[in-house]
Design brief:
This protein has about 600 residues and is mainly α. The chain has 22 helices and 4 strands. The chain has one domain (about 5-80, about 130-585): Up-down Bundle (Amino acid/polyamine transporter I). Pfam families: Aa_trans.
Length: about 600
């Protein structure tokens, strides 16, 4: 029996029974004859085609290409060339198909199995190559846009103190980088032109099977939808504050949902590179402006009781006595060791700060050379860590216990609050567009193409369908976010159950399964492309143990420990988030269908 794409992957072995015949002789089933998510494709078959694809990418990298200046790296173009280099045979070399990076399959609905049977092997792989246009520089900006959110770091350090704050942020930064490395390693081992990996759920499917794929896709979809809705609502609150609450709150939120209709029309991540670049510069400008104002003005005492580090840990530190607020103070350790919820909330800020790995698979899926992702990832993580630490320590150093949960709102002059609000709004809507882009692709690839045979996004019908889906998706995100009272509390719960998993828990779990599969291989086993057979000499726990020990074993043990620690951290985050949400619901809540802004205390 062939090892299939389910939990039974780790236990089965034999020969794939699904064979077609050619003049009475068995012949292997070619990739385009498979279902989009076919459980009969074995791990070994994925590995075989992945190794062949990586070899082709290495050969392509040796070919001379256009030289890039420093400006092209800093400001990646909207359109990047695909990796298509095989002429389909139906157009002359250098013709329009080749120039555009497409083939004669470009207008074929590859989601329909009956139509896939009419295209050649070259056209099948070229269709996959045509989707890969993003460079490592574009991915650097995408990762940084996804993860860079430094405005809560000063608050987090304020709830933890100097020592724990620096130590935990450093530890979580390294853990997030390690998780990104594990995703990169498993992606390279299982992605190919014949069987392209499209999203996080696809990776779970190829290692553990169908049910884990559904589980991961649902979690990712919930998180991305909530992330889009959160940014729409937070931008609406910022706009209502800037308007001094004269503009109806519901309209303030609706404006940003409508903006998403337009900006969400960007389909490819390479085209998103310039927007991501813009978002990074906006965030940096916001940081520099707020640091300049913080260093030359007192803290915003008026909001200290609502969202400052002191209000979360030691309320007496931000409570005025005879109308005079306490002096700025700092803590070397935890401000209040007995305040478990307050400390955990600060800890979660460090966890969530790096929680962007849920998009890493989608980034690699659109890269011309996925092997370069590791360069983009570590560069982005180093940049993010330095920005987080410098900004967070600066804000805490000047404002101490008064440092606000959004640092640019912790400045006292109203004019600079407004500047920070509007700049953050612009970068926020770009980040929301990125989340929406990936969220729609998860929906498109796993529901519309898989179940309803929707056309690929590279075809004209697919582009039209995308244009229709974007406003529907953003409308749903807005309605869900607007209808739920204390939506930010709900997002904290979702983040604990989702964000932590994609960055810290799932990568070591996926890598462990990958290493067990790979380490269990013996001489004479594997996939034979000539016959389409996958042969294993044994199965079950004995095979799993051999794979675990040959992983190598210390790497496997490290992944088990890492996954266990991540799950425990997620549990702590869920406890703190749920506790905070229960407390919030004891007070009347305002949703975004009201004209009254929740920030307006009048």
């Amino acid at each position: 029996m062939a090892s299939a794409g389910g939990i039974g992957i780790l236990a089965s072995g034999g020969v794939d029974p699904r064979m077609s015949t050619d003049a009475g002789r068995p012949r292997p089933i070619i990739p385009q004859e498979r279902l989009l998510h076919d459980p009969a494709v074995t791990f070994d078959e994925y590995r075989y085609y992945a190794e062949r694809t990586r070899a082709e990418e290495e050969e392509a990298a040796k070919l001379p290409g256009p030289k890039k200046g420093i400006l092209q790296i800093i400001f990646p173009p909207k359109n990047g060339p695909s990796v298509v280099r095989v002429n389909s045979g139906n157009s002359p070399p250098g013709g329009e198909d080749e120039k555009r990076g497409t083939s004669t399959s470009g207008n074929t609905n590859l989601a329909r199995r009956d139509l896939r049977l009419t295209i050649t092997d070259e056209e099948w792989t070229n269709a996959s190559r045509a989707m890969r246009t993003a460079t490592w520089a574009a991915c650097f900006y995408l990762i940084t846009t996804d993860v860079l959110g430094p405005f809560g770091i000063g608050f987090a350090i304020g709830t933890l103190g100097w020592g724990p704050g620096i130590g935990l942020f450093t530890a979580f930064g390294l853990a997030a980088g390690y998780g990104g490395y594990l995703l990169w390693m498993t992606f390279l081992g299982l992605d190919s032109y014949e069987f392209p990996l499209r999203n996080y759920g696809d990776l779970a499917f190829r290692i553990y099977g169908t049910i884990p794929r559904y589980f991961v896709n649902v979690l990712q979809s919930v998180q991305l939808l909530c992330s889009v809705g959160l940014i729409v609502i937070s931008n609406g609150q910022a706009l209502s504050q800037v308007s001094k609450f004269r503009l109806c709150y519901a309209v303030c939120c609706l404006i940003w949902a409508i903006c998403g209709f337009a900006i969400g029309q960007v389909r490819t991540l390479q085209r998103f590179g310039w927007l991501a670049n813009l978002a990074i510069w906006i965030n940096l400008i916001t940081m520099f402006i707020s640091m300049g104002v913080i260093s030359h003005s007192p803290p915003n005492y008026g909001v200290a009781a609502f969202g400052s580090a002191g209000a979360t840990t030691v309320p007496a530190d931000v409570t005025p006595v005879n109308g005079v607020f306490p002096a700025v103070k700092h803590y070397a350790g935890l401000p209040d060791p007995s305040s478990l919820v307050g400390s955990i909330n600060g800890l979660m800020q460090g966890v969530y700060a790096y929680g962007g790995a849920q998009l890493f698979i989608e980034f690699m899926a659109e890269m011309r050379r996925p092997r370069d992702f590791i360069k983009a990832m570590w560069s982005a993580q180093a940049f993010i860590y330095l920005m987080y630490m410098f900004y967070g320590l600066f804000c805490y150093g000047y404002q101490g216990q008064y440092v606000y949960s959004l640092a640019y709102l912790g400045v006292s002059p109203y004019g600079w609050q407004t500047v920070g609000n509007m700049l953050a709004v612009l970068s926020g809507i770009i980040a929301a567009a990125l989340y929406g882009n990936i969220g729609i692709k998860v929906l498109y690839n796993n529901v519309l193409m898989d179940i309803f045979a929707a056309p690929p996004l590279t075809t004209k019908p697919g582009k039209i369908l995308w244009a229709v889906i974007v406003p529907v998706y953003w409308s749903i995100a807005y309605i869900v976010a607007a209808a739920i009272p204390d939506f930010f509390g709900l997002v904290s719960v979702v983040a604990a159950f989702c964000a932590v998993q994609f960055t810290y828990s799932f990568p070591p779990i996926l890598a462990l399964g990958f290493l067990i599969h790979k380490g269990a291989m013996q001489d004479g086993e594997g996939f034979d492309p000539a016959t389409g057979a996958t042969v294993h000499h044994d199965s079950g726990p004995r095979r799993w143990l051999r794979g675990f020990l040959r992983g190598p074993w210390y790497f496997s043990v490290l992944n088990v420990v890492h996954a266990g620690a991540a799950l425990a951290t997620a549990g702590l985050g869920a406890y703190a988030a749920i506790t905070g949400m229960i407390a919030a619901f004891k007070q009347p809540q305002v949703n975004a269908f009201s004209c009254h802004s929740p920030l307006d205390s009048s």
